[in-house]
Amino acid sequence: MKINPKAAEYAAGLCVCFGLQTMKGAEACRADYSAAGRGAEPMQINRREFLRMSGMGAMTLFLSGCGLSALMGHDESKAAGKIPEKGSISGGKNMKIVVITSSPHPKNESTSCYLADRFTEGAKSAGHEVFTFDAANSETHPCRGCDSCHMDGPCIFKDDIENSLMPKMLEADMLVLVTPLYYYGMSAQLKTIVDRFYSRTGKLNHKKSVLMATAYNSADWTMEALVTHYNTLVRYMDWQDAGQVLAIGCGSRSLVEHSEFGQQAYQIGANL
Questions:
Q1: What is the pTM of this model?
Q2: Cα–Cα distance between 86 and 63 in angstroms, integer?
Q3: 116 contacts 101 by C-beta, under 8 angstroms
Q4: Are 1 and 47 in contact, with CB atoms under 8 Å apart?
Q5: What is the C-alpha separation between 180 and 111, in angstroms, rounded?
Q6: pLDDT digits (tens, 9 = 90+) for 150-178
Q7: Terminal CA-to-CA distance of the chain, rounded, Å?
Q8: Which of 195, 205, 202 is closest to 153 using CA atoms?
Q9: At what angle do helices 47-64 and 5-17 cross, to 10 degrees?
Q10: Of 105, 128, 213, 250, which residue has the fewest beta carbons closer than 10 angstroms?
């Protein structure tokens, strides 16, 4: 049968993405896709072979847990979506909130930025002021450990962290850390911001905080290392944790948009 180029790319992607050893079929599909893009006639591929490749990829996806939570409604993660009681965090007062996003992907494709947007929508609906800083697309520099700031500023780097983000963080009541999960930790872009907290360690103490993260994997241990790091940061900075949204099994924008996690993010913002 003739295979639609998009279908061929889908089958190839399943094979390559999940490490299947049917690379011959994957490369054949990908070659067909490229040829079709040049206006060439798609290759003929045996229906049984195509279904076998697609079925193996889908089964690998299912067994790996990457898509299982999406099919099952993310039941295993509900405990992470702690929603504060209305007004319990802010005491009924309008707060200044800084949301720090850190995804290198375009905003309209980013899973973690989707959670940030939903949180912001909820927080603004409750009357809070929200400033968003895009760590992935700003001029930032990692801490050099030079100690010129003596933990009380200023930093030697006059970049977007020092000039734009830091003044907002210093006057903020709440900091919201938003990240995709990279190798079971926060993104390098967010870690750069966290390390630069050093220049104002004392002045950034005693704030409220929220953690929101997205991950492709959906195993129950997926977020453990990130949450441990975050909880340690909360303890060291003497912050008050206001909630966490740990969106496991959300490897694409469509998955997170059709999950419960967007509503969790919104409700945390709205209930502050």
A1: 0.73
A2: 39
A3: yes
A4: yes
A5: 7
A6: 999 999 999 999 999 999 999 999 999 99
A7: 57
A8: 202
A9: 40
A10: 105
Whether the CB-CB separation of 212 and 115 falls below 8 Å is answered with yes
- Per the listing, tokens 């050093």 go with 198
Q: Which two tokens stand for residue 233?
A: 């940061």
Q: How many CB atoms lie within 10 A of CB 10?
A: 17
Residue in the structure block whose two tokens are 């409750």: 126
All structural domains of the chain, each given as residue ranges with its CATH number in brackets, are 5-64 (no CATH), 68-271 (3.40.50.360)
